What does this fold into?
Amino acid sequence: MVIALIVIVCVVAGLVFFAGGTLGLLRFPDFYSRLHPAGKLDTMGALLVILGLAIHQLFPVTLGSALTGLKLILIVVFVFLASPTATHAIVDAGFRAGLEPWKKGDPWR
Amino acid sequence: MKTLGLIIVVLVGAVLVYATVDFPPFGDPASPASLHVSPRYIEKTVEETAVPNAVTSVLADYRGFDTMFETTVIFSAGVACFLLLRVSRRRPPASRQYRHRLTGLTFRVKDGREISLPLRDFEPLDSIWTPHDFIIEKVCRYLIPFIQLFGLYVIAHGHESPGGGFQGGVILGASIILLSVSHNLRTALQRMGEKASALFSPFGVLIYAGTGALCLVLGYNFLDYQALAALLPGGPIMARSHGIFLVEVGVGMAVMGTMVWIFKNLASLGRYDEGL
It folds into this structure.
């Protein structure tokens, strides 16, 4: 019962982060500011959702369920490494290509 | 001419659409496919091949011929790209740039002039050169071994879970492509040269067909892995499972080699000197 509650809180919080990331992706004015929610909130959302799933299938604790939990946690580790790097690479490419950042008062692109 | 082509396309399309009317409804339990073949696969897979994942056993055992020729198709795609793109004549580049590793000084060698520099001290630069990004380079350097390990896991674990030769081969190939994208083509070529990638794909097909031929030699039908029980421990049922694994390794090698081969040909326009 308590475990189910923790799992629900984790997954719902993760979905809130995903929703915020999607909203930011749609509403922010330019390339760089759109990448900000896409990079950060998706990473956090993935962490919370996968953590919830790992807790959910960990009980009752057996060798198999612990192994599956470990694999799920490994996914989080690699998302944490790869997602910010990918965002960094995209921003870097945009900056090198000469895209000017949006400033207050500019028209929305 | 264009109108004629359009008419032909529309006619053939109309015939194809008309033919779909004869299809059984989607998911119909009374359709021929659901009545004869599928229940047998679902019921007998574990009994006959000791593979819990029915998709893998159907792909590599029951329909082994189909998969063998799929692998051959992948190999011929690689050969086609090679024949179309590869520039065999070696011509000196118009001008090229080198950088001294220690001091960072960059200089240009004018067109056609051949000089030999010790590559330990001098680094050749691409004509469209972007500075190396420290973060991307380091993260990719540390991630690529784990990606390759995961690719091998996917190939070996196809018996139990979704995966197999095609998926694992794509992951392995993508890791080499990631190395090329995050560093440059020259680094990727040092790790896996043109010959290696070009030999991997026919060798994978050879492993697949060779497993089939081995069964033939041992007195069974082509690709009937029961025959391998004479060579491997565990009896005829486990031999089918092991045979599927051998074949998956061949598929993985062919897919990996072909992906990297096609990428190199495309990225360097067939010249293999510089690229992404």
